[in-house]
Amino acid sequence: MSTSKPDMLSIKDLLSNDKYIIPMYQRNYAWEESHLKQLVQDVWDSIDSERHYYIGTLVVHIRKDGMFETIDGQQRLTTLNIMMCALKNEVSDNASLFDWFRGVNIEYEFRERSSKTLTALYLHDSIAELNDSSIEAMYDVVKRTIDSIVPKNDLDKFLNFFFNQVMITRVVLPEDTDLNHYFEIMNSRGEQLEKPEILKARIMRLSEQNKCKCWLIGLIWDACSDMDSHVQMNFSSDLRDAIFGEKWDECNWTDLNDLIVRTQHIHRSQTLEDYSIIDVLNMPQNPTRERSDNENEDRFSSVVNFANFLLQVLRVIKTQDIPLDDKRLIDIFTEKKVTEDLAEADAFISEMLRLRFLFDRFIIKRDFYEDRENGKLSVRYLKHEKDTEYSYNLTIDDITSKRIMMVESMFHVSLPSQNYKHWLCAALYYLYNNRDGKGLVEYMEGLGKAYMLGRFLAKDITADSFYYDLIFQKGGKYHGSIPSNLTIPTFTEHIDFFIFNYIDYCLWKEGECPDFEFTSRSSIEHFYPQHPMDNFPTMDDEHLHNIGNLCLISASKNSKLSNYQPLAKTEHYHKGKIDSIKQKIMMEITINNNHGGLKRLKHMPNTYKRFF
């Protein structure tokens, strides 16, 4: 094996030839469902490109026993092994596609449970007493993820592309590498130049002869790039007043030239350097700004990163089906002429700032003011009171703001991936055309219903253009007829988390559990267990696996009590915080009817059809 250059390996080559060991200093497996969804979606989006698709780098060191010690990339390597086990056992019926996969090729140093779990998954054995819950949970997610993204008729095509065209770069460190020194370098090295910074430099280059304009574009870009605070706070106080008005609550400029006129007096009062492209790249990412006494720097956290926000903005102002894939950020902006055409660049900067203002005013953020550890999703706008005083206020009235927060939270926890936040694109597009936000909650509720009927309850996966058509062509509304025999998927089919969260939102809107808050839940629980303890009878499959007996809860809770009887679960769960309104109703039925309540649970699916 040569160590002079990287090896370009297909997934088949990676998983069928060599053996890898995860050393004891590596952290436990930590990938979540959103990471897997992102990987599968990216691969599916690339399937017709007729090119290899690269999923990153694996850095290894060859031990004396010939094992490849995994230095960097163990999360990806573990995921690929889990995926192969699930694809072979749960997803595909075409055994010939897996002739080359003769077993997992990864071991964990001093983590026997993880090694045994992977081996058991490959063999399709019970792992009740040996399970690594994180690995097991990801195994369960694979089928649901594949079913939600890849049409059944295209499964073999997807698998062939995944095995042979998806590539990883394996870098083998030289034999005499000082690994301790290597880790020091890895931990202390500077961040690579980010794509948004490159984009910023290219846009500014178009206006480099206009000092005032170049200065303002740089300030706007840096202010917008800090997604974890309200954009007004990323400007100096005089710029806040000039751009957003005395109360900091306006976005009524006409274009970039208007913004230049509003701020040129501030520019004249400052010394401006001639910026080269190198200067731009070396500028600090966050602008120096004046902070008021009552400002809390770490109060908010955004639900989307800056690179993806840039793509959302481009999609909204272009009203085109632009991919929300931040790995292609530079290419997409180049294709749309934003980095080549001065007028296009100017328009983008002006509308990026406007949409960022609307984003901060009407889109959920995680707010750590009351809960410093976990934060709470909220929707608040920034208002200047007097002097250095300002406040964060509910966006509209109390009731409407709560509904906006809840309906956006429903979308967010169901579809947490940074990329492909189509619900966010829909909200921004609505706000771009209705800047006062009136009607937003009704629009988002209609969007949720359209998601349900057009996507998650549809018998077949709809066209890739579904979200674009829904947002930009159909006004966010479902225009088809609602089938009289509408059926909700069962556990043995693909049942998406969105279905559970949508039902919980509708129940909350009807007045159930007013204090309920959406959180990230990743486990579907059978309220009446699949494998009852204490010789209790099993439930017939038709009712066991339908929505009436299912609810969405945290994975830790499900693993603890999965085989307990409904009454025992109720006695345990009823004392704590409610994970699911649907679960709460199921527990109330159990309390009021004891075991006779099972008959009501069986017929619960019919009660939810009123929401559609």
Describe the structure concisely.
This protein has 612 residues and is α/β, with parallel strands linked by helices. It is built from 26 helices and 13 strands.
Radius of gyration: 26 Å
Secondary-structure-based class equals alpha/beta
Low-confidence stretches: 187-192, 271-275, 285-295
Number of helices: 26
The major β-sheet equals: 6 strands, mixed
Care to count the β-strands?
13
Q: What is the helical fraction, as a range of percent?
A: 40-55%
Mean pLDDT rating: 83
What would you call the shape? globular
Distance between the termini: 60 Å
DSSP strand content? 5-15%
* Sequence of strands across the biggest β-sheet: 1-6-3-4-2-5
Q: How would you explain this protein's 3D organization?
A:
The chain has 612 residues and is of the alpha/beta class. 47% of the residues lie in helices and 10% in strands. A six-stranded mixed sheet has the order 1-6-3-4-2-5. Strands 7-8-9 form a three-stranded antiparallel sheet. A two-stranded antiparallel ribbon has the order 10-11. The longest helix is centred in the middle third of the chain and has 21 residues, at 342-362. It is globular and about 75 Å long. It starts with 6 loop residues before the first strand and ends with a helix.
List keywords for this structure.
612 residues, alpha/beta, 6-stranded mixed beta sheet, 3-stranded antiparallel beta sheet, 13 strands
